[in-house]
Amino acid sequence: MAITNIHPIKSTLNYAIDYITNADKTDEKLLVSAYLCHPISANTAFIKTREEANTSGSVLARHLIQSFYPGETTPEKAHEIGQALCQKILKDEYQYVLSTHVDKGHIHNHIIFNNVNSKTGKCYQSNKRSYHQIRYQSDSLCKENNLSVIDEYYEAYKRKYKTKGKSWYENEQYQRGTSWKSKLQFDIDRLIKQSKDWDEFLSKMSSKGYEIKQGKHIAFKHKDKERFTRAKTIGEDYTEDRIKERIVEAVNTRSTKPKSRVKKVIDTESNPKIKESKGYEFWAKKHNLKVMADSVLFLREQGIKSVAQLDVLIQEGADKRQELQEKIKLIDDKSAHLSAVMEHAHTIKQFKEIYKYHKENPSDKQFENEYSREIALYKVAATNLLKTYKTLPDTKEILIELDALQEKKNTLMKEYSASKNNMDDLFIIRKNFEQYLGKEMER
């Protein structure tokens, strides 16, 4: 499974090349290759080509990363695939440095290539079309080398519906409601609603005990934690740009939301302030008269003429809210089921070749022992899918269905929120009448 991503380099090109060719990461630089330049002087060679082409663009080079599933390929094979990918996408027209890193849990290639074509002098056009071409060539090479290929619909599902970077421990804590990443999400969500701008949000996060590190990606560290967490790793709604957008949305929502005229009456029988201050008693009685007048006017405007009629309306509203809650729960249950199906389908695709070899070579005990985890995961996924599907489900169709369910849930949530606001007002009014009059309204 090769995953590819690409981003521009606009400064410190020499540091980027030094990083990808680090001896500790590349088996003492045995896994480093270059074209039309030497790794040590690649930075100078890139700049010289730019100057000869009289290029003034801000992008110096492109940095492409190609990652492979752990244990699926050797460093030498990964480097060979990286060279083939360079040949496919750069066509001997761009200077590049290729390195294969073996210091992490998974093997991955780094390719830094000049943004300027050494033959035409034109700049490389990085867009969706060129990226998909890279993906296509990378996937083709993986298939040729019997490596699994990434499922783009599963990746889209992960971005939309899964929290990134969650360890098994974090997932367990999340299920219990004690995940620190979940707490970070909760605090960010709450403080977004309370802030009028970005600076106030940061100030509130700081007052909640978070240390903030700003840079390319904003990160937070709670006083009880040792390490910073990049906000983007807990979901798409938590990047710096998205948080800023959500603050603006929250401010606009607060400014356009109509304020309720409904207020609560003051209990003049048991409130200790009444006995302590005659002035407060006079103000409270005056306040209650105004509240009751507003309450009566509010009900009249809605066509409600008695407390009995109000009780019927409250019960109908409660029934409606219960119905909406049940519909939302059904959607959540269906979404959870589809998410499980998506995960099972991904697992089957991921370990299909391993399981196929295992079935064809049952006597290969060394292979069975080495891949026992993958074989077990494949069997569990296949067993679970067979309960619902006769063939492997289409992940594209699952993603479409999940999107439709999410849209439906958003609509129901808005309806539920509006119903709740109205019900809250009616409950306050009913309590007012119970406390102030204790009898039905007169027609």
Key features?
443 residues, alpha+beta, BirA Bifunctional Protein, domain 2, 15 helices
Folded structure, characterized:
With 443 residues, this protein is an alpha+beta fold. It folds into 3 domains: 3-150, BirA Bifunctional Protein, domain 2, CATH 3.30.930; 176-256, no CATH class; 264-443. 58% of the residues lie in helices and 9% in strands. The chain is built from 15 helices and 8 strands. The chain has helices at residues 13-20, 42-52, 75-90, 128-144, 152-161, 168-176, 180-194, 198-207, 240-256, 272-276, 278-301, 307-360, 365-370, 372-386, 395-436, and strands at 3-9, 32-35, 61-67, 96-101, 108-114, 210-213, 219-222, 229-230. The strands form 2 sheets. Strands 1-3-5-4-2 form a 5-stranded antiparallel β-sheet, sandwiched between helices. It has a 3-stranded antiparallel β-sheet with strand order 6-7-8. Helix 3 packs across helix 4 (128-144), helix 11 crosses helix 15 and helix 12 runs antiparallel to helix 15 (395-436).
